[in-house]
Specification:
The chain is α+β, with helices and mostly antiparallel strands. It is 22% helix and 29% strand. The strands form 2 sheets. It has an 8-stranded mixed sheet with strand order 1-2-3-7-11-10-9-8. A 3-stranded mixed sheet has the order 5-4-6, with no helix packed on it. Helix 2 packs across helix 3.
């Protein structure tokens, strides 16, 4: 996290996990490329017993393209820059009003990836349940959906037994940039929390932190 600057109102929570502590940090608005480099450096240099970390932040307007992206993922000229990245999945959009959680978690073995994904999915489902937003997951098309619309995207990278990247939860943002792409490679309609309930950003952050603490108090791989 040395290359990122926490905002003045940042929150860092120590949460005792099964094998190592977890640090949850709120980092405010951070440039995507700078954050990607920080995640890669953290994962490359960390030791097995170092604390896991979850970074909560937002990005300025940007499209990111995962390793499975295809040419037809882009439908028209993009209004914002695009960055090729090393996460799984295909193309998506990030912008202000979207809650990003990056999971820098030690993975003991390859079979632990699915439980980690399921923990992330359950975290999102529980957050939305607290807001009385009925949501569901789709194990074939990773993400969280409200009826037929996607409200949260998930993409991870595992390297040297370390995960990075994470989820993007649409809170109160401009969704129109999604119309220029096929989000995650599909003709997918997007939705967001503000379509169902009005809630302050700082309140949303606290709900996310509490749910993350709760999930990581449980036994994780």
């Amino acid at each position: 996290m040395s290359r990122l600057t926490e905002k003045a109102a940042s929150v860092t929570v120590n949460c005792q996990q099964q094998e190592r502590p977890l640090i949850i940090s709120e980092l405010g608005i951070q440039p995507y490329e700078k954050t990607l480099l920080a995640m890669q450096k953290f994962s490359q240099n960390r030791q097995k017993d170092d604390p896991d970390q979850i970074w909560i932040l937002e990005h300025p307007n940007i499209y990111t393209r995962g390793i499975l992206s295809k040419e037809n993922d882009i439908k028209e000229a993009l209004p914002y820059p695009i960055v090729d990245t090393d996460r799984g999945g295909q193309i998506t959009y990030h912008g202000p009003g979207q809650i990003i959680c990056y999971f820098l978690i030690h993975i003991a073995h390859n079979k632990a990836l699915i439980p980690l994904l399921e923990t992330i999915e359950q975290t999102l489902l529980n957050i939305l349940k607290k807001l009385d937003i009925p949501a569901k997951k789709d194990s074939r098309n990773r993400g969280i959906y409200v009826k037929d619309k996607k409200i949260a995207s998930i993409g991870l990278r595992i390297k040297n037994h370390c995960s990075y990247h994470g989820f993007a939860l649409n809170h109160n943002m401009n969704l129109s940039p999604f119309e220029s792409i096929n989000p995650c490679g599909k003709e997918q309609k997007m939705t967001q929390i503000s379509n169902y309930i009005t809630i302050k950003p700082e309140t949303m952050i606290q709900i996310c932190i509490k749910e993350l603490e709760k999930q990581w108090q449980k036994k994780n791989p």
